[in-house]
């Protein structure tokens, strides 16, 4: 007795069927086809597109991957690799890439938390510079591995004030400035925006050392336009949730394929 043909091969969907299944406009489905986010689509004799379960699976993954802001270019690119593998009908590869994506998010979270821990140690005094002579901007640039322009930009954006020599107005960085710069550099490298760092430093300069982790992650009411990096910790938590949902979806597609083929 022969088995029933797989629905992946025999059942066809219209553009409106796919759009309704995931809650998007039909034009969105058409764009995804044009952008290569769905596999190539056959045409029926009447010219209409004939989508299959394969397209619907990819569309559900597309909506998950493309929903919401991304915490940085590398994480966005990592997520899109999962789509590319699914479009090629390599769902085993998509599952592996989903786990790689989750590992990348975990690494970003570890770096973000390590930067906050350095900040907290610095506030307590254990991360402060001791001794040393006053340094000019070129010496600080070499010491910290950041360019003159970056140092000037941090100062221009209010992250620190640098004393000047009276006779020539050259910047002179002492232990306090260098300690502060180390914290700023690590927070910036860990993904926090300059706005988030400034928000935290302004509170710290007022003598309030409470809840600095929360302050870094909470835009103020006057920051009515903000990026993912302005609330970096929360964004990474949301991205971890999305990565786990990508794994669950990919696993369910693989299982459905196995069930369909008996």
What does this structure look like?
This protein is an all-alpha fold and 262 residues long. The chain has a domain at 1-67: Multidrug-efflux Transporter Regulator, Chain: A, Domain 2 (Orthogonal Bundle). It has helices spanning 7-10, 15-22, 26-34, 53-66, 73-87, 91-124, 137-144, 148-156, 175-189, 194-205, 212-216, 232-260; strands at 42-43, 49-50. A two-stranded antiparallel sheet has the order 1-2. Helix 4 runs antiparallel to helix 5 (73-87), helix 5 (73-87) runs antiparallel to helix 6 and helix 6 (91-124) packs antiparallel against helix 9 (175-189). The longest helix is centred in the middle third of the chain and has 34 residues, at 91-124. The model has no long low-confidence stretch (mean pLDDT 90). It holds the Pfam family MerR_1. This is HTH merR-type domain-containing protein. Residues 12-60, 134-203 form the HTH merR-type domain. One of its GO terms (molecular function) is DNA-binding transcription factor activity.
The averaged pLDDT comes out at 90
- Fraction of helical residues: 55-70%
Order of helices and strands: HHHEEHHHHHHHHH
Largest sheet: 2 strands, antiparallel
Q: Count every helix, treating DSSP H or I runs of 4 or more residues as helices.
A: 12
